[in-house]
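explain this:

___
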Amino acid sequence: MTHAKPILFIAGGGTGGHVMPALALADAARARWPQLSVSFIGAERGLEATLLPERGETVQLLAMHGVKGAGLLQRIRVLLWELPQAVISIRRNWQSERPDLLVGVGGYASISGVAAALISRIPVVLYEQNAMPGLVNRTLARFCRCIMLGFGAASKKLAGSVRRVITGNVVRSNIAATRWHRHEPPRLLVLGGSQGARVLNQTVPEACRLLALEGREFVVSHIVGSDAATLQQVRELYARSEINADVLPFCEDMATFYSHGSLMVARAGAMSVCEAACVGMPSLFVPLPHAADDHQRHNAEALAAVGAAVVLDQQTLDATSLAAQIDAYLFHPAKLEQMSQAACTAAPYAAQEKQLDVLAEFLPAMHTSQTPEVNA
């Protein structure tokens, strides 16, 4: 169906790792095509249930649960009741607003949207942010027109002949415009994701204490997450060691955060890794060991493979070993310069244009003659 106003639906979410890339894609599409209508499909239990309405987005929220790690009864309930009901609800909603294209970004809410689109003969494009594709995208890829990949390494982990387009992940423009440079004294950045990371909040301050005892001079910017007790505790840990540290619950201006850093210790979510690459930030990544399909380790290894990062195992991490790793890089400008240059070689600077070129193939009157890089 062709509309005077083309319609794009984006389905999926659950966590910031899915929701934020979906929003970045939506914002980029609206900027290129002001006449485009963009709506979302998500889950009542996901981050999108609060974040999208707060932004004024149109979103259909579904009473869906995940099945990975769930018991037999919940799996049966989801597959035989929740999923069919969600598909029916979506198709009913489309009677008045049928999309021209649906993009599935992963997460269990994506399944219903993709299934409804396939039944309705609406083109489906998948978007996989991580170097290890999630279960939903691995399962659905064979039924869709193509899949956009945030990391080239993900291509080898997909079965079948689905068309693969290596686009990279879209990084906010102010972050993409930020470049790493030397600082004196050097500044250590600590980033555990939007919710913080307990292991980093506990281990990094102690590692910094050990470095301070060795006479090392440095400063710290540490994002701990939203828990007030943790915020106070981490601040006290740095203060007792007389370390100059900015300890924050969160940071809205990540471009400035990155611009002040010499070396970063961080989790390895897809967006954190891509932002580090674009900025040219030398990094020590501590992947979340219980992340689905160990995808954070695969993300981190994409930068480690080009010499831009070091991957640390949380299971063997302690303050002493972390202090040794920080010491090996933070106070050696030549090493940091080399890592920074390597990071930029892997940066997805053209991700936005590549993703929009894919969408344009399926949106009426928006086809572009540009052909994105394809890895079959």
Q: What stands out?
A: The chain has two domains: 7-170+349-360, 174-345. Residues 368-376 have pLDDT under 50 and may be disordered. The longest strand covers residues 37-43.
